[in-house]
Amino acid sequence: MSDGLRLLFIANFLFLAACSNGKSSESVFPEKSTDSPGLPSSCEGLRIEGEFVAVWEDGSVTRENGVDREQMIRDFVEPNLEQLKRVDYNYEIKTEIVNSNSSAAPNWHHDDVNSHYAWDNNYKGQGVLVAVIDSGVDISHPDLDGQIYTNNAEIPNNGIDDDRNGYVDDYQGFDFFNESGNVTDPNGHGTHVAGIIAGLHQSSPGNPLSGTNGVYGIAPGVKILPIRFMSSTGSGDLADAIKAVGYAADQGASIINASWGASVCSGTLYEKIAEVESKGVLFVAASGNSSNNADNYPEYPGAFIANNILSVAATSDIGALAWFSNYGLSTVDVGAPGEDIYSLAPNSGVKTLSGTSMATPLVAGMAAILKSVKPSASYAELKDVIEKSVDNSQIQVRTRGTVNVKSALNYMGY
Ligand SMILES: [Ca+2]
Ligand SMILES: [Ca+2]
């Protein structure tokens, strides 16, 4: 080590030591969330008036009412400084979905990413838990029969937190929007996402189309952990999103699907996602549907730069970037089919939808397939394989490519 480097190293060390000892209201609730490492400098978003998010040292997350930052620091942060980890503004978050014209063939996306290769070899994501943090999931859909994670330590609908994990009746997921064990999906977005990942392949009585017109989940061997935090209109908030990410990791999900976002550059959300990195969680996130270069007009969490985030752009059936999709050579990692995607709808239905919301679960399901063939694979290996095995489609994302299941499996030697 040269003297210059050593000095820098010592200086850094002293700086870090000083920071960790001196917790202040400014460090707990910085004026700009950008004070977290890894966040870009342009961070603005839709704040929810009068609402704040508190992340406590014990890991709990609460929503707090207040007038403004000044008042919150005086009346809330200062008196609770020792117990508080971070305080942030609360923000609105929305699903990443657009209207669809449905001109593509049903299941074109599976031909595009070569899902058939995985299915033919019985690589279906067996034994992998994928959290769908969304608007809920219609877990009674016949094409999701047996596809939903069950918490056997919890007795459903008895009003008691039987396994004492802090969540009452979280038998098959949890609804943070209503604080309930019922994850029903009045919006439909989360059910569509779950179907893209885990929809059963055989035709069922509830699926009016069958055979070649049926819905096929990319990884029908996985279990879905449904976590609701969005309303019937597909909007939720930062506070519940943070809780949902923590819950997913605590329940053992190795992959989180986040088909949502906003121009909310929140240090608290960033830190929660970074925290679940230590639990080995791969966080697959939508890049957004604003037709923007996300490097300049980022939407989060997709545009966060973090080791365990895989940000997904949407492509169309002609192999190009979808007209609505965000892109970006540094903030968006890969492309995946996301236009005219055929999947499940609540009440035994089926539906075609478009969005980076639809591209994201295809990649999450693909990651689950890779995890099932090699359970010891870390999130970093999954991400690396997916990125290095893309088809070069020259789209404006970091890898310049679109995901391919067969190439990824081949890359791993399967
Ligand atoms: Ca419980
Ligand atoms: Ca119970």
Mean pLDDT: 89
Ligands, deduplicated: calcium ion
Uncertain segments of ≥5 residues (pLDDT<50)?
1-21, 206-213
Instruction: Output the CATH class name of the largest domain.
Output: Alpha Beta
Largest sheet: 7 strands, parallel
Tally of domains: 2
Number of strands: 16
According to CATH, the homologous superfamily of the largest domain is: Peptidase S8/S53 domain
Report the portion of residues in β strands.
Answer: 15-25%
The best one-word shape is globular
**Which fold name fills CATH's third level, the topology of the largest domain?**
Rossmann fold
Q: Give the % helix.
A: 25-40%
SSE series: HHEEHEHHEEHEEHEEHEEEEEHHEEH
- Kindly provide the radius of gyration, computed on alpha-carbon positions and rounded to a whole number of angstroms: 21 Å
Cα end-to-end separation: 43 Å
* Helix-and-strand structural type: alpha/beta
| CATH architectural type of the largest domain | 3-Layer(aba) Sandwich
Strand order, biggest sheet?
5-6-4-8-10-11-12
